[in-house]
């Protein structure tokens, strides 16, 4: 009888130990998976870029809209407010932000503008009025405002100007993927699509008139 009780107790103990071992293994696996997930998780940085009046965050390859729009505004402000003395400094500020595929083209345009500003001895001033995010491309912003060019005569010339800037986030840094400056209203994707449809319509009507 004692032998039977001992066997039952022994079997129960072994069964309990096996169950506990399974739990321990499961906990170890869970801990390992937690550590792996923590290591793979990218760091979110809370930071304050130029021209930003509120808190913003930036991840390894993405950022809050407020962060990106603040950088777009800062870049437009740098490009739009230039005089013969500050031209080279502005170029040095923007150069590290340029994507490789547009790097040389943009630098050539900046060099040309710097040369023209020095030659004509003009000062450019830009007053932003609107910061618009493209509905079709969330990485693209349009900084719309008034540009004023003042030469040696002191008589300023004012224009409506748009800075079209596409920004990507790479390794926590903003990178300028596209940059265009032009006179007039912003040419958003919606506007471009509307213009393309209008051009196609005009082309079809012209073909129909020629056929008749």
From TrEMBL:
Region ranges (Disordered): 188-212
InterPro entries listed in its UniProt record: Pilus_assembly_TraE
Parts of the chain that traverse the membrane: 20-39
Keywords carried by this UniProt record: Membrane, Transmembrane, Transmembrane helix
Protein name as annotated: Conjugal transfer pilus assembly protein TraE
């Amino acid at each position: 009888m004692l032998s039977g009780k001992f066997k039952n107790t022994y079997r129960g103990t072994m069964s309990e130990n096996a169950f506990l071992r399974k739990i321990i293994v499961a906990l170890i696996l869970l801990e390992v998976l937690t550590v792996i997930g923590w290591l793979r998780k990218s760091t979110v940085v809370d930071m304050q870029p130029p021209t930003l009046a509120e808190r913003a965050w930036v991840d390894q390859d993405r950022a809050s809209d407020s962060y990106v729009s603040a950088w777009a505004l800062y870049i437009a402000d740098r490009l739009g407010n230039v005089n013969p003395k500050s031209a080279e400094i502005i170029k040095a500020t923007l150069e590290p932000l340029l994507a490789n595929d547009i790097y040389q083209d943009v630098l050539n345009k900046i060099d040309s503008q710097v040369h023209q500003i020095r030659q004509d001895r003009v000062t450019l001033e830009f007053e932003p009025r609107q910061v618009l995010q493209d509905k079709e491309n969330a990485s693209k912003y349009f900084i719309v405002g008034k540009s004023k060019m003042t030469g040696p005569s002191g008589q300023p010339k004012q224009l409506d100007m748009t800075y079209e800037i596409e920004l990507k986030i790479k390794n926590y840094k903003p990178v300028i993927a596209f940059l265009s400056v032009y006179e007039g209203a912003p040419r958003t994707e919606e506007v471009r699509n509307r213009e393309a449809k209008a051009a196609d319509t005009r082309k079809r009507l012209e073909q129909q008139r020629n056929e008749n």
